[in-house]
Amino acid sequence: MRTHKLASLALAVSAAFSTSILAQEAETIQKKETALEQITVTAQKRTQSIQEVPISVATLSGEKFESLFSGGEDILALAVRVPGLYAESSNGRVAPRFYIRGLGNTDFDLAASQPVSIIMDEVVMENVVLKSFPLFDVQQVEVLRGPQGTLFGRNTTAGIIKFDTVKPTQDLEGYAKAGFGSYGTMNFEGAVGGGLTDELSARLSVLSQERDDYIDNAATGQKDALGGFDEKAYRLQLLWEPSDDFSALLNVHGRELEGTASIFRGNVFNKGENGLNASYDRDTVSYDSDLLGTGADNNPQEYDGFGTSLKLEYDMDDVTFTSISAIETADGYSLGDVDGDSIASQNFVTQDKLNDLEQYTQEFRLSSNTTDAMNWQVGAFYYDASFNVTSVDGFFGATTVFHDNKTWALFGQTSYQVNEKLNITGGLRYTHDDKSLIVGEQNVDGFAVLIGFAGVQEYDDIHVDDGQMSYELSANYRVTDDMSVFARYANGFRAQTIQGRDVAFEGSPSVAEAETINSFEVGVKSDLLDDTLRLNAAAFYYTVDDMQFSAIGGGNNFTALVNADKGEAYGFEVDAQWLATDELTFTAGYSYNHTEIKDDTLTVAPCGTSADAGFTGYCTVLDPRADGFSASIDGNPFPQAPESIFNFTARYTVPMGDDGEFFIFTDWAFQGETNLFLYEAVEFTTDDNFEGGLRIGYENFEHNYTVALFGRNITDEDNVKGAIDFANLTGIVNEPRILGVEVKYSFY
Q: Where would I find the TonB-dependent receptor-like beta-barrel domain in this sequence (predicted)?
């Protein structure tokens, strides 16, 4: 298989160049630099060297991060840019779905929970819409692989992606960056900060991204009908430091998004074949829906959000008290011509509205602040969120469901330096989670009600709650000054989930019980060759009991939450960076994930299968079908879990006198075999997907400016990222090639 060839290639390249991508960290290499930059992380809510943390952690910052987003990309650009990390969405630039080590959730519902938690400036973004807040003026991204239930709570069974933005200082500093590219793509980003008084400093950051519509609608003859977006975001931070012992950081941020939701492309697979067929055209779709009554809908999308947080820190000699209070809000909608074509018999068009999302979180922490052998921290956490979702269908009408979720937790962690080589860490967390769903108005203005096909149903309110303990134990042993090994056992859980979207189509809500993960990993971290080579690796094994899945599709297109008896996975990651010379830097990384569903009784209805109609579906199912219709998924890989990921970067510079340098930077990412759904089918398996980026430019050190030509997806690959399996062979593909120019000026 080509996947194994890629794996062999990845390991050969890694060995030949002694590279991997630990951390996919800052690749900005200062002139005449002779050692790699030391990286600090806050993976354990303390500032520590990444080489001392007994967790598999990768980071992104600097040029690598800037390059990924130069073409106006959203948060999905992080997919496969770190070993073990994947992301996709069927909701455009909102509601991304993340996967770490193969563990994630394919549910497209706006109330869906995910086992990968997004933390922005120390605030959890629980709802899928909040997870999509634009990335700008970012100091560092940390990817914590494996369960993080002790310090970060439930719904972190796969891991965490942690974003830290640049904070205010007393020094006047800032930057402005503008980029212009294909399809009218424009990207502006800037920040300015400094001291307002001796005690008060501020930083204002802004982002503006837009792209013109470039996809034609063949059904209506409309040119440039969809594919564009216009997004604005801002962040204002105020830091008050009246004394050496106390600080208060206020963060106020918001966004506005208007554009096109996901582009569903109907009939782009041939039954019995793998890969896009001849009818696929990146620049053309055929949509005939008019759900809004204003003409062809063309998949519009609008969202806005606002949030604020306040972090207080008080240093009480040997103990530091921390309080983080935060409020996040969001509203908006996405409309999708889900079948992706203009065939009247397959006209599935829906609109989901998120209304009145309010999330409140409060965390208190006490942590030791000494140089003693033992360090500790204890804390309490509270979470309260509510929102409603209105699903609008042209036949059934509009139906609203109300969601509410409350969580509280107590946690503690301690680390003990046994001797100069051995450090042991242990932690506990008790979490209680409470969820409810109430069905509101049903089938409003629905044609189905008028003809007697549907009616208002009686649904009992649903209330579920659960309390569980999470725990971890790890050890880090420093073999030499430049190498350490670690071992970690971690337990965590993802809270119970309620799915109520099918109420809009007279389907009953479904509930998935909490899942529990037990994870084991061992690893090595090293700085070699006089600190010019950083090479880290980790191997893992985990099991998930009562694993939550979303069974989507079948003839009625119902979404049902189910629990598999068990899920099992094992694999490894290799991360490294090599400063080959003062002018040449390589990074690379590789991950392998084997995932397997273990439940010999669990079946799903694949690709539009309807036993009532005697129809076996639109695709070529590879799983056993004992009754001729339902597919047994026992032994299948997790959905959207790439078996392998390989990424590679290289940066070469040519000094231009004492004032600047010419540079070439390239980044590549490869994705191995990936099964899109719970069942296996010929049409819905991808392999050997890859994308590359390129930056060529000049950086002036004396005047602090950079001018560069850039390209994203420079080979213009057409990669399948997702599919719709209930109406026809509909696919979702990646972003097109974007070529452009970027200018950046910084001041200090």
A: 276-713
